[in-house]
Structure formats: C-alpha cells, structure tokens
Amino acid sequence: MILLQEFDYYDGSEKTLYLTYGAGYDNDAGIFYRPAIIQPANYSRDASLLQFGGRTSSSYGETTIANGDGYFDYLNGAYFEGREMRMYTLEDGQPYSSRVLVMRAIIDAVDWKMSEISFRLTDNSKSLDKPLQPNKYGGTNALPNGIDGTPDDIKGQSKPRIYGRISLMGGVEVNTSKLIFQVNDRAVAQIINVFDKGAYLTRDGSTYANQTAMETTAPASGAFKACPSIGCFRTGSTPFGAVSICVAESFVHTEISAAGVIKRVLDDMAISASAYSLQDFADLDGKNCGPVGVIVQDQETAWSVIERIAASVGAWVGFDALNVFRVARLDAPTGSYSVVIDDTVIDSITKPVPAVAPAWKMTLEGDTNYLVQDKNALAGIVPTARAAWFEAATRSASASDTSVKTIRINSQDYTASSVQVSVSQLQAEATRRLNLLKNRLDVVTVTLRDSPTSWLGQVDIGTEVLLQTRWYGYDAGRPMIVTGLRTNFLRNQLDLTLMG
C-alpha cells in the first residue's frame, strides 16, 4: 500500500507540497510525491468516555518528514497554517485514479527541527471555538427612539440570542423611554406571553410590522404588543416587577429539534453544507424530534451550545476523518448489522472496565426557567400553580428500576440537565438511557490486522457490528456499537472500541 499526503501552502501564490512514505511516486501527470515521510498522519476518534453524549475526542496527530539534507528549507517562510492536508492510500500496482481519500485535516502549525519538520494537524473545531453571539449593544439610542440602549445602561452588553422554544426568560430593556424589550437579536415566530410579577399582560391586538410602528404607537396600559421581526415587544405601562416572557423562536419542528438547532448553529457559524452530513441530522430527527430551547450565554462558543444540545438527547458530535461534522445518538445494538468482525481479522482483543457505571435511576431536568422568581415576589393574583412554575428552575422526568440495585450493587442514580422543553420527551429520553445502562454493557477493544482503508469505508462511530470470537464467550457472536477508532497506517492496522 502506498501512502500519499498533500499539504497546501502559500508562498507568493497557493501551492501544494506532495509527499509519500517509502519510495517516491510519480502519478504520470507531472506530479511527483517526494519520499520524505517518517511518520504519516493517523486519525483517532473516541466517544466511549462520554456518559450520555457530547463532543467526541479526536486527533489527527502530526506528519513528520525528513529534512536532514535541508531540501525543504525553501519552505521556511511559507504559510501552511489554516490550510488543508489530504491523505490518500493507493494499492500497489493500481492506477493513480483508484487512490482513496482517507483523511482530510487542517494544518495547525509547522514545527522545524534540525533534521525533521512536523506538521501538526487538527480538524475544523477552531471554526466553532468562537462566540456564537458576538453582537453587543452600542448604546446609540437617540431617545425617545432606538433599540440599542444608551451609554448609561446596556452599552457593551451582549444581545440575546435564542433558539427553539423558551418557556420563561427575561428580556433586555432596550428603550427605557418607550418600555421596549428585546428577547432575540433577530426575528422570532411569536412572543407568546409576557408576565409582570407573574401576572399576564394583555395582548394588544396584532403585532407591529416594524420598528418604526412600534416606536410610534404604544399599546394600551397593562398590555403588550410584539414586533416579531426584530425580536422585541413594547409594554403599555411601567412594569411593577420582573418581566418574564414565553417565546417561540420558530414553530417548524425540524428547525427547533436538537438536530435542527445544531444544524442552524453550524449555518450561523458559516460552516458550509458540504462540511456536515445532512443525513445525520435527518437520522437524529427520526429518533428524537422534540423541541429544545436554548439561550446563548454571554460569550458562549458555538461548540459549547452544540455540546449542550447533543448531550440533552444522548448524541455525540465531532468531525470525522474527512473533517466532516457528524452527529448521531448513542444507542444500544439492535441486532441489525452489516459488518462481522471475527478471529480471521482480529490481531488482538481486550475487555477493559466500562467507563460508565450502570444505572438504576435516571432523571433529566429540562424546560428551563431562565428567570426564577420567589413566589413571595409575585403579584397576589398569581395562582398557586403558576407561582410554583415561576419558582422552579426546571421541570424533570425520571425512570427507575430498583431491582437493578440487587443485581448490580454499584449501579447509580443519575441526574443530567437537558435543553429539551417537552416533559414527555424528557421522560422518553430518561427511559431510553435507563434501559441502556441498567443492562449488561460490555466494552471491548480490538485491533484489526487488515488495511485501515478497507475498514474505514465500513465502520465509523455508531456503526453496529457483530463481534464473533472465541474470546470472552462471544463464540455465537455479540452485536456491538463502534464507539472509538484509531488508525495506524505504518503497521496497517485499525483499533476499534466496541460497546454492547
């Protein structure tokens, strides 16, 4: 097998460095891959340490090339950082056109040593390690008009950004003269309810068409009127206490599901559609399409928001070997597999201690109240049930099986937070997680002796396989889910972590 790596760089113009491991390679089209690689890139990704979803750990390692003769010194001063590396494998004797792309990464840094050069590689994570909401209020109001605050109140404060449905939140008073509040720095589908000290404000007719109409006409006293196109509303009288709002940023279920919001966050961060898997989002929607509600915290990164959403529905997120963003739910094997791993391809096998303890009870806390108020601070007309809702930080759902404690003495009572807003969805997810963790769940690591290239097209994190081996009582075969993988192109091996 021939390893080919290409490194893009800038040196007066965009260029590409072509390298290979072992003997040099000429592709018969005027491109020569110089034999300089000492250590090729290797890819690893692991979700096995995640309890209930979140961001996978991943690494592309680094490529080290020989430079003892100083041949590559002409590249000192060239700009590699932020550009792409591509890695191909090619079977001996096969045409160049049959090469297989096995890795695509971003060049993070170049490390020069006396006789070697190392290219440190990474994925596209830096594009998501940035604030999702960078917009701040400028304090430019020319009172009595404007929705940007003044230098004396909210100048420099982050503007609100929400996704999905928020049951209760506070608004930002962006105009103190005209009692205008903002819940989102862009359009919302509907500002459903506004409360003053827990008491409903009356909706004053239809909505405002635009900011000018909102600034021109006040609603009636004790009422509110919304301007959904700019995420604002105006009250007709000065509030007596804390103002809380129930708002729907969208009513389209595929936009406010976990998959839908994650995809929209990627779009908001200018991640191109070719850099994520649309099928993954469709598959996740097929398993859990319930609504979520997210308020982006001050300076919170896109990665942080994505992780919170994914963990809420038990999904992992991360970039694959081709630097494509992937998302999928961590599920138990179903018995439906297309790949068999047996002793004919296993080089070694171990059975480590599972990273997650079994569960006898699972509780999910969601439908967050982002403006908790003591019931004693609410208006006297607020009913007891509504007062309890305003006083609670979340609503929760639990699933339990006390019989598990007898069999599995170390089983745990787990509690996790969620951005899901439907109690029925919280209940379904709590039950699913309990069923996953109360039963026997083996973790196995296997090293496959066949070429990584032959396997990478068949398995990835989330792939179901049948492990059939004489070891550990798996003679008849045990369905398992791939939760981790690591390539070793020099040794022509692939390591897999399996769960099931």
From TrEMBL:
Region (Disordered): 130-154
Protein name as annotated: Tail protein
Native organism: Methylococcus capsulatus
